[in-house]
Design a protein that fits this description.
By secondary structure, the protein is α/β, with parallel strands linked by helices. Helices cover 32% and strands 20% of the residues. Bound molecules: manganese (II) ion (MN). GO terms for molecular function: exonuclease activity.
Length: 329
């Protein structure tokens, strides 16, 4: 049996800030190439790692254009739900989303912990399971990543979560391959969500694969060096895995605006510095800016006048932001 896996397509109707090309047309070309590969190379099942859509309510006209292409895949796409596909990163809201509609129309099929079983030509069985993204998927409880039992000769598990090979120097939760490799019964774990990807890793005689997002959408400088790729998994009497770059994908410099990425990169550094400074003062409830300002003022003996000026500026900024958000809709 041959599987094709790709992840994080992020279908949307407009251009991300950092893109120089026509993003929608680029996405269509990529999907068309994946359809062609699926047909020409006799792919039995197409697997997808979540974030098919950039937001849960992508416009009907855009969705219609993409359905035309997705329908050309030889079989429905077996997928998990990503954080961008749904409202509030909550998979329970899927029935109100475009992805939920596609599932109802049988254009995609959802994977869950209940295995789907398929058979190879030589009588071997393969189970496929999946885990959606949900709040705290990367918390202490790693059950989204763990297949407890094998009902078949081989097990494939698809998950949308922050799976990494090496620790990440950030405040966000993540899951290391080391945390799950000894415990999962899956022979192949396919992950989406982390757009950089980490390629193919083999731990405890099990494969852990993230080819990276099929579209370069995040404002990270590293995206310039990355060529979007997909995975072919061949299972017969043993497992063969291969990562291949998309032929139609252009080099990063052609589609991404380096200057804009550098601006975003520097903004992120400043923001992280700011957060670090704040947290070094003590234990604050980060969301309550007014409290943070008051605490810092107290700590640094800053005068009432300056403190109040800062509070007023923040109130004004918040007002502006809320107006802008309304305009964007
Ligand atoms: Mn994503």
């Amino acid at each position: 049996m041959r599987f094709l896996f790709f992840t994080d397509l992020h279908i949307r109707g407009n251009n991300p800030r950092s893109r120089k090309d026509n993003f929608v047309e680029t996405l269509k070309a990529k999907l068309n190439e994946l359809v062609e590969i699926s047909i020409n190379e006799n792919i039995d099942k197409v697997l997808f790692g979540g974030d098919l859509f950039d937001r849960p309510d992508v416009s009907i006209s855009v969705v219609k254009d993409f359905i035309k292409i997705i329908k050309n895949f030889p079989t429905p796409i077996l997928c998990v739900i990503g954080n961008h596909d749904v409202y509030g990163q909550n998979p329970n809201s899927v029935n109100r989303t475009i992805l939920g509609l596609l599932e109802e129309l049988k254009i995609v099929e959802f994977l869950d912990h209940q295995p789907k079983i398929f058979y190879t030509n030589n009588g071997k069985s393969i189970q496929v399971t999946g885990s959606n993204y949900y709040y705290n998927v990367d918390g202490k409880d790693k059950s989204a990543y763990i297949v407890n039992k094998k009902f078949a000769d081989y097990a494939i598990h698809v998950v949308h979560g922050f799976l990494l090979e090496k620790p990440f120097n950030n405040e966000v939760n993540y899951t290391l391959i080391d945390d799950i490799a000894p415990f999962t019964a899956a022979d192949v774990t396919l992950a989406g969500h982390y757009h950089n990807g980490f390629g193919i890793k083999n731990y405890c005689n099990k494969y852990f694969i993230n080819p990276g997002a099929i579209s370069r959408i995040s404002n990270a400088l590293s995206e310039i060096r990355r060529i979007p790729s997909y995975v072919i998994i061949d299972i017969d009497s043993h497992i063969n895995t291969e990562i291949r770059p998309l032929k139609c994908a252009q080099i990063g410099e052609n589609v991404l605006d380096r200057e804009k990425l550098i601006i975003e990169h520097n903004k992120n550094i400043l923001f992280n510095k700011f957060v670090h400074q704040i947290t070094s003062y003590g234990n604050f409830e980060l969301m309550k800016l007014e409290n943070i300002i008051s605490e810092i003022a107290k700590h640094e003996n800053i005068s009432e006048i300056i403190k109040n000026e800062a509070l007023n500026k923040i109130a004004l900024a918040q007002d502006l932001i809320s107006k802008e958000e309304v305009n964007l809709e």
